[in-house]
Design goal:
The chain has a single domain (29-135), classed as Immunoglobulin-like. Helix content is 14%, strand content 41%. It has one helix at 9-27, and strands spanning 30-35, 38-40, 46-52, 59-63, 71-72, 81-82, 88-89, 94-96, 102-108, 115-123, 126-135. Strands 1, 2, 3, 4, 5, 8, 9, 10 and 11 form a 9-stranded mixed β-sheet that branches. Strand 6 and strand 7 form a beta hairpin.
């Protein structure tokens, strides 16, 4: 019968620390904080500023359950921005901040009913989750 080598208390503690570190890191989740926290229903293009707790790369999509009625504003529903060198810049419903982990998101709330809704922002390196309150229209 073979016996296993005895591990000293330091080796045992180090092994235990390594075994528990990975699950704790996997539990960390990116949070999206919205300003303003409340938007009116019935708007074609309502902007929100979103601050992300973790970098996820350029945000490429806004995801919410279909029942929320929240969608990204169509680019054609956004005002064009004149450029200093002439011409217009094509409008985008998701605009990343020049610095930090932030973005401006343009939402269509025409079909949204008042309530609090969860959403996700998806980037090249992950996703952030947040919530947003839709208030009765103006």
């Amino acid at each position: 019968m073979k016996t296993l080598p005895r591990l000293g208390p330091v080796a045992l503690a180090a092994g235990l620390a390594l075994a528990t570190a990975a699950p704790l890191q996997a539990q960390a989740q990116c949070a999206a904080t919205v300003t303003p926290i409340e938007v009116p229903a019935g708007e074609i293009a309502q902007s929100i500023m979103v601050s992300l707790s973790e970098p996820i790369g350029n945000v490429t999509s806004f995801e919410a359950d279909e029942e929320t009625g929240l969608t990204l504003t169509a680019p054609e529903d956004l005002a064009r921005v004149p450029l200093a060198a002439g011409g217009d810049q094509a409008p985008m419903p998701i605009q990343m901040a020049n610095e930090g982990n932030g973005a401006t998101i343009w939402l269509n709330t025409v079909d949204a009913e008042p309530g609090e809704y969860e959403f996700s922002l998806v980037g090249a390196d992950g996703a952030c989750h947040g919530s947003l309150t839709v208030a009765a229209g103006r």
